[in-house]
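Before a computer can learn anything about folding, someone has to put a protein's shape into writing. The three-dimensional part falls to structure tokens, numbers that each stand for a local backbone shape. The protein below has been through that process, and both of its lines are reproduced in full.
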Amino acid sequence: MVTLNDFGKMVQTVWDELPHHFQKIELDAFVIMPNHLHGILVITDSLGATHASPLPTQPPHGPKPGSVGVVIGSFKSAATKEINKSRGTTGLPVWQRNYHEHIIRNENDLNRIREYIAFNPARWAEDEENPLNVKTSLKLTKP
């Protein structure tokens, strides 16, 4: 289990508030990890999901209004504002630029992903990005 610090608690609160700002979504499984998060958004009505936003050279710029990209962008923006307000670092980035999405097409896929999310904290000890899991290698040279 991952114990959330104050920043993690802020992120959790912002995630929990998403359905109040976007009435066409519900929240499902979710976990905050030390360096990333996993969550399932259930789209209850046509949200206007798009595979990719238009290229910046093509109008309109950015994600389609009401799309999954807007939901995730809003979440990341609100969490960033809360974290930066707390630490007194206005404008400092918190998130990587993009996100990974996967369309869940059936109950088996949903259950597999829910299980992955539920057990992700238990796998943190083996995660290659865990700073406590540094793998060292010795190079032996002949004299």
Observations:
- The radius of gyration is 19 Å.
- The mean pLDDT is 85.
- The beta strands are 25-32, 37-43.
- The longest strand covers residues 25-32.
